Amino acid sequence: MRRNKIIDRREVPRYGLKEAARCFGMSVATMDSWVNGRTYPTARGKKFFPPLIPITEPGMLSFYNLVETHILLSTRRKYLIEMPAIRSAINYVKKFYPSPHPLLTETFLTDGKDLFVKKIEGDNNEQTLNVSRWGQIGFASVLDLYLKRIERDEKGLPAKLFPIRMNWEGKFEAQPPRVIVIDPSVSSGRPVVDGTGIIADVIVGRFNAGEDMESLAEDYSLKVAQIEEVIRYAPAA
């Protein structure tokens, strides 16, 4: 008798490139280059940058892929890490600490220039490896702003994501409100108001149609501040 394979819904490809890009307010072209790679000209002809994020179905991302995008955005937007350093770090981790999702299974750190991971080597000796420079030992500060917005399960794998949109106007020393969440177990993994199944797009659509925030808050039993945050998220929702 054939047994049914248990599928982790977090691995299921369900977001098209455009939808995934909108979750973060980033360009579709950037998302496409991260998951499909891209060619670039050189004096000797065209070369190819391989993808940074592995996808299992052409043009479709999983929840895990969204979290990987979230982490990559932190290295590019807040910390301004150069792309060659990011590629070198991912390649190092793939080679020495194999994982289908190295950005998720390793805790990355940065000093604003390179990427690092912490490892226990030998007799419980903790070392911080500079994985942008192929394993040199170094020190760095944690990518805390973005990593704190990932809730993990008992195995340490991402279970929920509180995305930060690219046009967020706040200071990076402060945490944006945790109002919008992406949870693969709620509303098919669409961005919703945390603690509810209310899809952000639905609220935004009603607001754009002319309904005021107070009425929307009353209809959905939410606070006006929550509605305001959903509206601010609108460019990425």
What does this structure look like?
By secondary structure, this protein is α+β, with helices and mostly antiparallel strands. Among the domains are: 80-142, no CATH class; 177-237, Arc Repressor Mutant, subunit A. Helices cover 34% and strands 19% of the residues. The protein contains 9 helices and 13 strands. The strands form 5 sheets. A 5-stranded antiparallel β-sheet has the order 8-7-6-5-9, covered by helices on one side. A hairpin with a 5-residue loop joins strand 10 (150-152) and strand 11 (158-161). Helix 1 (17-24) crosses helix 2 and helix 8 (213-220) packs across helix 9. The relative contact order is 0.11.
Task: Count the E strands.
Answer: 13
Radius of gyration computed on alpha carbons? 19 Å
Q: What structural category do the secondary elements indicate?
A: alpha+beta
Task: Tell me the overall shape.
Answer: globular
Q: Give the proportion of residues in helices.
A: 25-40%
Beta content: 15-25%
